Amino acid sequence: MIIVMKPNVGKSEIDHVIEKVEEVGCKAILLEGTNRKVIAAIGDKRDVSPEFWSAIPGVEKAVPILAPYKIASREVKKTDTEIKINDQIIGGNKVSVIAGPCAVESQDQINFIADKVKKAGAIALRGGAFKPRTNPYSFQGLREEGLEYLAKAREATGLAVVTEVLSPEHVKLVSSYVDVLQIGTRNMANFLLLQAVGECKKPVILKRGMSATMDEFLLAGEYILSHGNPNVILCERGIRTFENHTRFTLSLSIVPQLKKLTHLPIIVDPSHGTGVRDLVKPMSKGAIAVGADGLLLEVHPDPEKAFVDGPQTITIEEFENLMTESRAIARAVGRDI
Amino acid sequence: MIIVMKPNVGKSEIDHVIEKVEEVGCKAILLEGTNRKVIAAIGDKRDVSPEFWSAIPGVEKAVPILAPYKIASREVKKTDTEIKINDQIIGGNKVSVIAGPCAVESQDQINFIADKVKKAGAIALRGGAFKPRTNPYSFQGLREEGLEYLAKAREATGLAVVTEVLSPEHVKLVSSYVDVLQIGTRNMANFLLLQAVGECKKPVILKRGMSATMDEFLLAGEYILSHGNPNVILCERGIRTFENHTRFTLSLSIVPQLKKLTHLPIIVDPSHGTGVRDLVKPMSKGAIAVGADGLLLEVHPDPEKAFVDGPQTITIEEFENLMTESRAIARAVGRDI
Amino acid sequence: MIIVMKPNVGKSEIDHVIEKVEEVGCKAILLEGTNRKVIAAIGDKRDVSPEFWSAIPGVEKAVPILAPYKIASREVKKTDTEIKINDQIIGGNKVSVIAGPCAVESQDQINFIADKVKKAGAIALRGGAFKPRTNPYSFQGLREEGLEYLAKAREATGLAVVTEVLSPEHVKLVSSYVDVLQIGTRNMANFLLLQAVGECKKPVILKRGMSATMDEFLLAGEYILSHGNPNVILCERGIRTFENHTRFTLSLSIVPQLKKLTHLPIIVDPSHGTGVRDLVKPMSKGAIAVGADGLLLEVHPDPEKAFVDGPQTITIEEFENLMTESRAIARAVGRDI
Amino acid sequence: MIIVMKPNVGKSEIDHVIEKVEEVGCKAILLEGTNRKVIAAIGDKRDVSPEFWSAIPGVEKAVPILAPYKIASREVKKTDTEIKINDQIIGGNKVSVIAGPCAVESQDQINFIADKVKKAGAIALRGGAFKPRTNPYSFQGLREEGLEYLAKAREATGLAVVTEVLSPEHVKLVSSYVDVLQIGTRNMANFLLLQAVGECKKPVILKRGMSATMDEFLLAGEYILSHGNPNVILCERGIRTFENHTRFTLSLSIVPQLKKLTHLPIIVDPSHGTGVRDLVKPMSKGAIAVGADGLLLEVHPDPEKAFVDGPQTITIEEFENLMTESRAIARAVGRDI
Q: Checking CA distances to A316, which of A101, A265, C318, D225 falls within 20 to 30 Å?
């Protein structure tokens, strides 16, 4: 930690900071600059935040040298983490596609879609049973009935199934039905939920909060990891910016940046990340080109009739076409789908 | 709803939209513009979202005429809602100040602060028992022990107590100890939690999500209202922007804008909204000047020793001074503290 | 234009709006909804802005149906615009790469780089002669001397040369030396400069303002087009958001969205768009995958010694490698470099 | 400057950085942390930017200790700068209000408004002669004719006049007519224009760029100061964020933060900062409460007929009422209007 003192602080304030540095178990080195005094705290104490230091009188700011996360860091684990989902791997050489409707609507619907996306090359089926809806008057999902349909669609097709979990008290129920738990963007900083899925061992897809910085995103991953679950898949799904031609701004540059900093696999959700059907295919191709390990896509035979998220949902035919074109990109970066 | 068709759509697409409009119970009026055809759907159907329409083939966009919330709207209830907190009112002519430490640390700490903030004019005591922390290695709160300390501080001072609730399963426990439940910014879109506090009858302080638009904020309030709890206090606490001289950008313009659109009281949290101790007093005064019904403030006798949020916490003396200066502003806008 | 009236407006306010609609030459249709009255103004009057309407008493908001730009619109010109730069085309099937140093430093430097980037496949050379610098104490460019060096580098290599123009009074001078004028992000809304390059006939690379919406970006292009210059190349270069792992957030989704709305070619600048050397190659590949017509890249033999923008500048070797990998992506989307 | 090296860098990379530090005239101190090596560069070299350092191989990031601006800094000049505008002062104890129409429309219009705003307490008249318009088809201002009208309005009322200057080549002309030059938000980073007004001696109102950080804003001020003009008035006018209930987000917290860091006066423009007429009065009061030295307001006798910016323009009566209510706030903070 680099602790920058305010101009004109006295000896007593500096001594006090040095004392505090030693108290937390670090070594203090005082640097006397032309206009400022700076104290370097030497030692790996990631749990002592910059806020701790800037609350001390006389301190102007504190700049961390080390990242606040550790288990998620590539410094700690150099090789890519590969996560097993039934007989498939996420994070290996293959680009893994997970597809399905935003919401599970009926057994027929989910089986039909599961069959189609499997044939087109998807490795897992997604479908929402518990739906977090901005509007209290909107459809909230089939809940446990939806989980049962997902489990039966797995039996029918062999595809692993992925669904969102909304609350710590649902973790046990949901994980008894599905193969992968998804944490939605609105719950990325729901720390009790992160703990709960951390104590479970099922793979978790952790969506980036729509206003989370990269460090906050990795710290959310660290929450899960630090509670004992090593199977964390990060998912970029668009951030909130001033742009209004899309619902969110899909920030693809986070993919190669995360690849440098963490060993965890990273997938991209261009459906929520744009909110616009026509943009799903080009942004899927872009995601693969920048190095994403997979895609999470909303597919429905009749998007107009989808209970949720119709405008960003692609049809079965569009999905098949997307897979063909994406495969060409995957090969151009030395991977396969 | 105004439904704008893409250029060059055919009659069958238009007829299909008109049919859908009538299906949901609205009346359709077709407007033939110079370059575009537009269909107006007449009728109060707030639960049919723009997304429903833009998912239909041939539709370019759908523009809602009515706000998506209803119970929260001033069109439905014209007079200001006043919310009773023990023997005090939030939303009346008085500017209500709620103050206390970010985290409850001990019985002595909370009693000492309660006594001081009461004397300086606060109407309620805040203090965190369950702390949502970005970093998994940070202090997570005293939990039920903290709730007990809060309840005892109430006994000792007569101040109502406010604390954050993090999960639906905690609502019963927390509301058995405290007078006001707080929903934090990271949980504004935790819809199961909104439902749970909606089914409880205790007053709720609902903090704006750091990336929530005004409509999304009001819809979160509507969630609580629509589940039966009319006692919703809105709280602006800063939004995430590109600015880096503060932790968040405190958006004071939302206060007078909300006053036009909703009957619910609105308070402001300048501690989290800036993250900078020196800015708490001026921004408190600004909040009152723009019409806020109250303030939510972090106060600690020794911010350097505060377990959480030290850099934005003011001392008892600073709080007393803030109250004096804020009182002058309150009077200048015809109110009192 | 759809003009939404406030609740409870009287007949006189409605009549007044209808009169205004007819005054500007549109036809007014009054729609009487359940809770609101709405007036549709029929007619292609893009120059009458929503602001004109919302300033009228009783009007709640005005929603435009037509885009505010016209010449730039694909509705007006359906086929892609191809722009000739010397013997090369931007906007055709080929992905056009423009590369060079951020700043021209010497004749040797620019000739050396020109030769290298040409061999690796670039179709034009970029280099700054007038540098807009945030810090007044930073290097401001070689000015006319830099233009001379660029012109000589063109003679030596046959590459077209591109440079930024900062002020209307420089347009004549700069265009006497170079083949393509560049408008920087900080000048996208410098309307006098847009006019000046509009009156010139040289091709213009128009960089997106770092906080410009898509409509504002297209309106800036329309400025140039409407002053007589049809040779506008749009360039996405990153927007300002809360993200801090990159200098800007490169918004690739604007590329396919612009392709739907305009016939103008669109290129991407991943050097400024990320500010991070390691991200230039993956984001270049992403840009091509989403459909960009070209790339604008900063290349320098020794980025550490570059006068400007060292951290985002790639070496000659990195550029050669980028071209090889990008070529594979271009082929995967049916194009060439 | 604190230079953080990448993990696992070798001695040669460290020696190379140390050499560079000494080359620019600083003293290097090597700190060997547990996981990282850090080099502190001691010496006041604000012109060597963090980018210079992060371009060097092996460097992970560079963190500046000193602010990049100097003349603007309160460390260099401790007392508040007061700027004389004719017989009035901006930056003293009085809150200075500058008001007038967005665009000068006629001699009668400007004289009428000048007279009214003077009587209500304004110290200067604003009015646009050259208008930067987003839409090329919108009204662009009366240009020199408008300047003449402004000069005559000054003769008639004795009010100082303020107008925007758009281009370096206009500075001489505009400053021959008016008392204060205004740099608009779209030109805050038009460095040639900043130089030109820096070489002129007339007071300058510098509006914050809509996506400028506080440091960039102060650096723009430093441009003007460093070219010889000490009369810089900073103006917050709203930033671009995801919020959509206002045109921009007026960031009032920058006012007290700037007061800590700079001696320059700071005013606020709530008209552009919100874009909503009803919000102008409350946000004016908020601006004064947080410590602004003045207000810049758009006033027009008939906003509906204003050529520009009608929706955010207040009437004469609204202005008079705003002045009365704002005076109460000014007194509550120990100032006058």
A: A265
Which of A95, A239, A245, A321 is the best substitution to test chain C (most C C-beta atoms within 10 A)?
Answer: A245
A interface toward C at CB cutoff 8 Å?
Answer: 211, 213-215, 239, 241-246, 249-257, 260, 273-274, 276, 278-279, 282-283, 285-291, 325, 328-329, 331-333
Chain segment A267-297, per-residue pLDDT in tens = 999 999 999 999 999 999 999 999 999 999 9
D19 exposure class (CB count in 10 Å sphere: 0-12, 13-18, 19+): exposed
Whole-complex ipTM: 0.95
Sign of the C-alpha dihedral computed for residues D212, D217, D219 and D220 taken in this order: positive
CB pair distance less than 8 Å for B249 and D239: yes
Q: Quick check: B65 and C33 CB within 8 A?
A: yes
Which residues, given as ranges, of chain A have pLDDT below 70? none
Sign of CA dihedral C136, C165, C124, C266: positive
| Residue A115 distance to chain D (closest CA, Å) | 40
B21-70 pLDDT, tens digit each: 999 999 999 998 878 899 999 988 877 888 889 889 899 999 888 888 99
Mean local confidence (pLDDT), D218-223 = 96
Distance CA C181, CA C201 (A): 10
Alpha-carbon gap, residue A66 to A77, rounded angstroms:
15
Using the predicted structure, report yes or no on whether residue B181 has a pLDDT greater than 80: yes
DSSP A162: E
Sorted by where each starts, the structural domains of chain A and their CATH numbers stand as 2-63 (3.30.70.1140), 83-332 (3.20.20.70)
**Helix, strand, coil content of chain C in percent (nearest 5):** 40, 20, 40
Q: What is the dihedral of CA A71, A72, A75, A81, to 10 degrees?
A: 110
Nearest CA in chain D to A244: D242
Distance from CA of B8 to the nearest CA of C (A): 10
Q: What local confidence, expressed as pLDDT, does residue D286 receive?
A: 98
Chains that touch C (3 or more CB pairs under 8 A): A, B, D
- In A, which residues are within 8 Å of C331 by CB distance? 332
Residues of A in contact with C214 (CB under 8 A): 243-245
Strand pairing partners for A32?
A: A37
CB A312, CB C312: distance < 8 Å: no
Q: For the purposes of burial, counting CB atoms within 10 Å of the CB of A282, is it exposed (0-12), middle (13-18) or buried (19 or more)?
A: buried
Look at C240 and D138 and tell me if their CB atoms are within 8 Å: no
| Chains C–D, number of C-beta pairs less than 8 Å apart | 111
pTM of structure: 0.96
Tokens 């993956």, residue?
A: C282
Percent of chain D with pLDDT over 70: 100
Positive or negative: CA dihedral B141, B147, B149, B154: positive
C235 vs C270: CA distance, rounded Å: 10
A1: nearest CA in chain D? D33
| Cβ neighbours of A245 in C, within 8 Å | 213-215, 253-254, 257
CB pairs under 8 A between B and C: 57
Q: Which of A257, A283, A328 faces C332 most closely, judged by CB atoms?
A: A328
Which residue has better confidence, C67 or C329?
C329
Tell me the torsion sign for CA atoms B145, B148, B150, B156: negative
Q: How far apart are CA D159 and CA D152, in angstroms?
A: 10
Residue contact B244–D211, C-beta within 8 A? no
SS3 per-residue string spanning C135-194: CCCCCCCCCHHHHHHHHHHHHHHCCEEEEECCCHHHHHHHHHHCCEEEECHHHCCCHHHH
Helix (H, G, I), strand (E, B) or coil at B249: strand
Note the pLDDT of residue A307. 80
